[in-house]
């Protein structure tokens, strides 16, 4: 049995650690909110991956966005890494959407189709 001092030490430790999730009030390490919202986001997708070029408010060639990929953020980041390498450009993952700098619609469509996704080019 742990001594009172050890028990208090544990309490102090967990209180100090105190990073709790504002939504569920669980400690962040056991919080499932992000995972749950990812599952909800993925469940809401229709199975079609959409590639779109966006230039509004951006310099140069704008970016190519890829939405609707049924992957978690961690998996999207891995995929984005591979796509950036293939296109030789930069990019990012935001809110479940991969952004690739420049206009790479054709090679992205090719790459994603090869990976087994149903891909549609959307927008301008
Ligand atoms: Zn939470």
Structure commentary:
- By secondary structure, the protein is α+β, with helices and mostly antiparallel strands.
- It folds into two domains: 10-39, no CATH class; 47-121, 2-Layer Sandwich (Translation Initiation Factor Eif1).
- Helix content is 40%, strand content 21%.
- It contains four helices and five strands; from the N terminus they run H-H-E-E-H-E-E-H-E.
- A five-stranded mixed β-sheet has the order 3-4-2-1-5, covered by helices on one side.
- Strand 1 and strand 2 form a beta hairpin.
- The protein is elongated.
- The protein starts with a helix and ends with a strand.
- The model has no long low-confidence stretch (mean pLDDT 87).
- Bound molecules: zinc ion (ZN).
- Zinc ion binds next to loops.
- It comes from Vreelandella janggokensis.
- Keywords: Initiation factor, Protein biosynthesis, Translation regulation.
- Residues 53-116 form the SUI1 domain.
Short structural description:
This protein has four helices and five strands; from the N terminus they run H-H-E-E-H-E-E-H-E. By secondary structure, it is an alpha+beta fold. It has a five-stranded mixed beta sheet with strand order 3-4-2-1-5, covered by helices on one side.
CATH architecture of the largest domain: 2-Layer Sandwich
- Report the CATH topology name of the largest domain: Translation Initiation Factor Eif1
| Overall pLDDT confidence | 87
Shape descriptor:
elongated
- Low confidence ranges: none
Major β-sheet annotation: 5 strands, mixed
Domain SUI1: 53-116
Keywords: Initiation factor, Protein biosynthesis, Translation regulation
Family: Belongs to the SUI1 family.
Pfam family, one: SUI1
């Amino acid at each position: 049995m742990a001594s009172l001092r050890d028990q208090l030490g544990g309490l102090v430790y967990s209180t100090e650690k105190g990073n709790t999730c504002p939504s569920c009030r669980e400690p962040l390490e056991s919080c499932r909110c992000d995972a749950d919202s990812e599952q909800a986001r993925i469940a809401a997708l229709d199975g079609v991956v959409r590639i779109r070029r966006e230039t509004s408010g951006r310099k140069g060639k704008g970016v190519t966005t890829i939405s609707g990929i049924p992957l978690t953020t961690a998996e999207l980041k891995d995929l984005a890494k591979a796509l950036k390498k293939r296109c030789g450009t930069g990019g990012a993952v935001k809110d479940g959407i991969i952004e690739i700098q420049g206009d790479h619609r054709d090679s992205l469509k090719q790459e994603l189709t090869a990976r087994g996704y149903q891909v549609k080019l959307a927008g301008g």
